[in-house]
Input
Amino acid sequence: MIITMQDTETREISAKIDELHEERGEAALGRVLTLLISTNEASLEHDLEVANSASREHPCRVIAIAPSARKVEAGDSAEGEHHTFLDAEVRFGSDAGAGEIIVLRPRGGLVHHADTLVIPLLVPDAPVVAWWPNEAPANLSKDLLGSMARSRITDAMNSSNPMRTMNDLRRNWSSKNVDMSWTRLTVWRAMLASMLDQPPHLPVSSVRVTGPKDFLPMDLLAAWLRLRLNVPVIVEDDPGANAVTGVYLTRADGVLSLERPSTGDGVAMQSVPGQSPQTISVPTRTIEECLSEELGRLYPDEIYAEVVTQGWDLINPQH
Amino acid sequence: MANRGLLPPSFGLTGFARRDWTEDHFKEFVKENVEAHCRTPFKDSTWKQLADGIRFVQGTFDDPKAFERLSDTVAELDRDRGTRGNHAFYMSVPPRAFPQVSRQLADCGLAKSTEGAWRRVIIEKPFGHDLASAKELDRVVSEVFDPSSVFRIDHYLGKETVQNMLALRFANAMYEPIWNSNYVDHVQITMAEDIGVAGRAGYYDGIGAARDVIQNHLLQLMALTAMEEPVSFSAADLTAEKTKVLSAVRLPKDLAAHTARGQYAAGWQGSHEVVGYLDEKGIDPASITETYAAIRLDVDTRRWAGVPFYLRTGKRLGKRVTEIAVVFKRAPHLPFESTATKELGKNAIVIRVQPDEGVTMRFGSKVPGGTSMEVRDVSMDFGYGRSFTESSPEAYERLILDVLLGDPPLFPTTREVELSWQILDPIEEFWSTLGQPQPYRSGTWGPEEAVEMLARDGHRWRMP
Output
């Protein structure tokens, strides 16, 4: 169910939601968190789909803010009026995953006061998570929405300039921030860690990582390995790749490797000296999985913190 | 009320006002409002019956003739409708008009009841602006009316959820055993409004948030939260317990550290740009009246020793909400890894007075799945609207009915009002020595000062 509200107010939106809850016999307080999405009209539907899917695991109230592009007809109102208005949508039921979605389309001065716009709509007492699916503000802690959130999720790879976004994020780093390019690595990290968990526990002497050029997750993976293993890490371009294609760990007994040449079939090959190679299914992580993972863990990710504040510079001294 | 058969057939309503209205004007005005706000379908037959008892007297407070006309009108109702000399006066008048109106009512013989009939007077807040003025007001009213027939209306006490506090605490076995300083960490009582002073500028400036709300509503809510179990729910027993608690309230020694005040500044709220308090129409641009007030109170009893009660109220805050939150101490030992309980807050019972009336319990629960034990806060919820589909009566409905029945348990007594002023007066006195209250942006949850005030005690305001 999608209810469209033009020229509305936050008070009306709250009333509408309460009314719908009552009608449908639901309790708003079952929501475990409020997810704020700061996005734009073009990306909105896709972002909401992702949020819906994540909300099945973490029932939440989604509030998406996408500045309005609605043109006010000259004849509609007196000159100068209606430069500032709020359009909204409330989505329930099959249109909203396990929770409800509020889409806010502010225009004019409201765009610059996003915090007081969403405050009346937050789920009482529940943590607030902010997500920037594409462009992120340079300093999340100073951002009006960001400063309200307990956890701030960005996706630098989806921004117009991933490297610059990452540098901004690193410069204004806060323990509440996390970038999805890190979340995308969780499976790789888990598999690498479990490979090294097996005996013999010989020291690793060097590492090679292959993947596309200027690929954020690869840089983060390299930084993590550099920091944790404290050995040289070589980052190698693999032309034509669209994700990390391989990690090679050199030890006295040979090379341990984890390779996924193509993301298409999602099959990886794990080779350990003295054993026949094994294939494992490692499909590319979907954005839904990444968001869900971040919503499941709302406390600071200490390893990510070390990687972006220390490891990154060891790998990318030029940045 | 008439539709539900709660009013006697002889019920009459007489309006007295300065405006130049005829009886038909007044009837039309009442009808419009009944139609707009009644909870049961509007029935013409009920209305007709009710309208027959509606009168209007035009006049000013200083005109003895007008009061004579009032007296005659009421006498006519007594005779023709059978109200039998039972009269309740609902005084919706500014406090300064009280002495005059009481005097006029006395002079025209309306104030004293005849044999076998009652006279009751309902007065609205403010009940004075400090202890001295409250006593003076009381003196004036009791000169004319019998003290037992004075009903001070505090509409919060008429709300179902407030009365449900008594049911929650005293009809159940689960809560009362932990309702004490062994388990309770602190209590937060909040009444937030999202509107500004609007049309009340003239009254509000110089009065401020604490006198307007804390002195009456919040202290009453606190008394109901903290009081011992009354022997019965009769007015005398209930009042005895509330009075005990109010008389055991202790103010913080360092008022600067444990109180906070603020004044709303311009901002954007509910999709509009709104002006700051000092720019509101009718407000002195140099006013130091607070629109946000937060105070810490302690109750010196065995039950509450060491449990702070935080009371806060304000205008132009995040949203309109009134609630009482009883926040519990952490479990003495957590047999989990520290990461497991990182997101676990303190348990709480929240009584939502308005809107969305109900009770919420917050406690920790394991996050499903995963290999690790993770505990996160969840809510269990009781909502009036869902468990009882009958809509709750308006607070005034209940209170006016109580007045007609002469049943006063939900009305604060003179003693309670005086105790409340005794609590607030030293704070107001201290505040009056300070300068401008700290500004807060409209639509946010109040000034930084209030956040710091709780942080000093190691607490945080809840987000209602």
The mean pLDDT of chain B is 88. Chain B has two domains: 13-155, 157-393+413-456. Residues 13-155 of chain B form a domain with the Rossmann fold fold (CATH 3.40.50.720).
